[in-house]
Every structure is written in C-alpha cells, then in structure tokens.
Amino acid sequence: REEVNALRNRHKIHVQGTDLPEPVESFSQLQTEYQLLPQLVENIVAVGYVDPTPIQMQAVTVMMHRRELLACAPTGSGKTAAFILPALTHLKKPGRMGFRVVVVSPTRELAKQTYREFQRLATGTGFHICMIGKSDVAKQKFGPKSPQKFDILVTTPNRLIHLLQLTPPGVSMKNVEWLIVDECDKLFEAGKQGFRDQLAVIYKACDSSHVRRAMFSATYTYEVEQWCKLNLDNVVTICVGGRNS
Ligand code: ADP
Ligand code: ADP
Ligand code: MG
Fold first, then answer.
1. Which residue numbers delimit the Helicase ATP-binding domain (predicted)?
2. pTM beyond 0.90
3. By three-state DSSP, how is residue 62 classified?
4. Which of 85, 98, 105, 196 has the fewest other C-beta atoms within 10 Å?
5. Bridge pairing between strands 69-72 and 152-155
C-alpha cells in the first residue's frame, strides 16, 4: 500500500523478502494489533520510550509474525528492544522448560548491556534472564538435573559452546523458540573466522522444529547476507538508513 511505502520511505526503512509484514508507527499499535504484553507496554513508558525507532517499527512486526530476519541499523538505533519486545511477547510468561530465547553477542561487554536491557524491559514479568558464569556453576545451574526455571540466555559464543559440548550437555537448546545473533557482522569479521564454525554449532544445537532465527547488525555486509540467505528460512532483510551506514 502507498501509505506503508510512505512510512518506510520517511524513516529510510528498506525491506526485502516475500509477504512482508507492515511496519507500525507507534507502540500502541503494537499493543492493539500485535498483543504486545501489557507489562511491556508499561515498562516502555517507565523507561521513557515514546515512539518506536525505525528499526523497531519494522523488525518488531516481522518477528511478531515469526519470520526469520536480518536486521541492519546504525549503532544506537534501538536494535536491542527491537528483538526483546517480540521475543518476550512470544514467551507470554515464565516457564520451567529451560531457555526459550537465546541471544548470542560477540563480546562479554555487549552481552552484559543486552542482559541489562532485558532486565529493564522485563521488569515485573517474572521472566528469568541468565548469563553464563563459571563453567562448573553453569552446568549445575542449567544442566539436565536443574529445575530448568529460566527463560532467556544472553551469552558469548564460546561460553555457550563450552556448555553444549560437555557430556552430558550443560544446557539444553531443545525448547529454544528464538535464536538471536546480535552484532552478527562482528562475529563474521576476519581474525575471528572461527566464529563461522561456532555459529554452526549453536545453529545446529537449536534444532527444535519451531525455532526461529534473527540476526542483528550495525552494517550490511555481503558475508552476512550470504550466510542468512543460505541458512535462514524465507528471510526478511531490513536495512535502516543507507545500505552500509
Ligand atoms: P543498538 O543496539 O542499535 O546500538 P541499543 O539497543 O543499544 O542500540 O539502544 C541505544 C539506546 O537507545 C539505549 O539507551 C536504549 O535504551 C535507547 N532506546 C531504544 N529504543 C528506544 C526508543 N524507542 N525510544 C527512545 N530510546 C530508545
Ligand atoms: P568468552 O567470554 O568469549 O566465552 P572467555 O575468555 O570467557 O571468552 O573464554 C575463554 C575460553 O574458556 C573459551 O574459549 C572457552 O573454551 C572456555 N570457556 C567457555 N566457557 C567457559 C566457562 N563458562 N567457564 C570457563 N571456561 C569457559
Ligand atoms: Mg546493539
């Protein structure tokens, strides 16, 4: 529709893919049209977000439709909330079935920032959000004999793979609904070429029939695009701003 195109143009939202979900202009639209969790709506107000940022306008609705995506938008444009809001809405409420959302970050510092944004936006929801600490503690906490009372994992690739490769595995990925790779361009950068294999291990471990994947990045690179076209299901690509800004 013309209106939709005008909205995308106004916010420099470029999209590619089939059956593209429409963007929304406001958080209240996410509430009425997408049943964004009421507690999230409250928390958005409490943290002072008035309107969604351009990447949030489009990426949230794409994820709400459970479509796999590659989302590129400049640093500081609100990519974290763009995946937190739909992911938490899909979980609905805390469970005892282990991790259902896994976010992979390239560095410990970025993982910590994402963890904090989860804590802030999930205030009052009761969701259990975790990071992986010392290996022996982690395997007690997350392993097969633990009560599985956690919902969201934010981690660097090394730490997750370390747990996955223990016998028995120190964590199960069998109930993961969203695998989110943040700053995925950094993870593909030269010098860290080991990450391709790490990503493959994590990707394979998240093998439930209903798992969805979302890749977020500040830059649009050929390598990332190729990986997504090859490994994601009917991918939607979103770029905000110039193609490489
Ligand atoms: P990115 O991951 O794209 O670099 P972040 O998710 O770290 O960006 O967000 C950058 C800053 O913008 C954070 O302080 C975050 O709390 C804030 N922010 C996110 N969404 C909004 C919004 N809709 N309105 C205002 N501020 C926002
Ligand atoms: P990262 O935070 O990126 O995993 P670290 O410096 O913590 O990097 O990990 C260094 C190495 O220790 C990793 O390459 C990995 O093989 C191993 N390792 C991974 N997870 C853990 C863990 N939970 N505890 C101890 N060692 C780990
Ligand atoms: Mg970010």
1. 60-238
2. yes
3. helix
4. 196
5. unpaired
